[in-house]
Amino acid sequence: MKTPAKKTTRGCPICGKPPVEKYRPFCSKRCADVDLNRWLTGAYAIPVVADEDEDGEPPSEPTPG
Ligand SMILES: [Zn+2]
């Protein structure tokens, strides 16, 4: 937690800069292309960071017997 960024506003997913209306949610066409390229190359990894709004219940262990 080193970035004092706002919680509701996210920056460019590529570089973190404030997004531009024209290229939202990216800050520039370059970053948009970078993201697109990731999709095309299939190397895009969807962030698994979900909103820790609720406490996820732990996986119920199978009861022996
Ligand atoms: Zn960017």
Automatic annotation (TrEMBL):
<dbReference type="Pfam" id="PF03884">
    <property type="entry name" value="YacG"/>
</dbReference>
<feature type="binding site">
    <location>
        <position position="15"/>
    </location>
    <ligand>
        <name>Zn(2+)</name>
    </ligand>
</feature>
<dbReference type="InterPro" id="IPR005584">
    <property type="entry name" value="DNA_gyrase_inhibitor_YacG"/>
</dbReference>
<comment type="function">
    <text>Inhibits all the catalytic activities of DNA gyrase by preventing its interaction with DNA. Acts by binding directly to the C-terminal domain of GyrB, which probably disrupts DNA binding by the gyrase.</text>
</comment>
<comment type="similarity">
    <text>Belongs to the DNA gyrase inhibitor YacG family.</text>
</comment>
<dbReference type="GO" id="GO:0006355">
    <property type="term" value="P:regulation of DNA-templated transcription"/>
</dbReference>
<dbReference type="InterPro" id="IPR013088">
    <property type="entry name" value="Znf_NHR/GATA"/>
</dbReference>
<protein>
    <recommendedName>
        <fullName>DNA gyrase inhibitor YacG</fullName>
    </recommendedName>
</protein>
<feature type="binding site">
    <location>
        <position position="31"/>
    </location>
    <ligand>
        <name>Zn(2+)</name>
    </ligand>
</feature>
<comment type="subunit">
    <text>Interacts with GyrB.</text>
</comment>
<keyword id="KW-0862">Zinc</keyword>
<dbReference type="GO" id="GO:0008270">
    <property type="term" value="F:zinc ion binding"/>
</dbReference>
<feature type="binding site">
    <location>
        <position position="27"/>
    </location>
    <ligand>
        <name>Zn(2+)</name>
    </ligand>
</feature>
<keyword id="KW-0479">Metal-binding</keyword>
<feature type="binding site">
    <location>
        <position position="12"/>
    </location>
    <ligand>
        <name>Zn(2+)</name>
    </ligand>
</feature>
<dbReference type="GO" id="GO:0008657">
    <property type="term" value="F:DNA topoisomerase type II (double strand cut, ATP-hydrolyzing) inhibitor activity"/>
</dbReference>
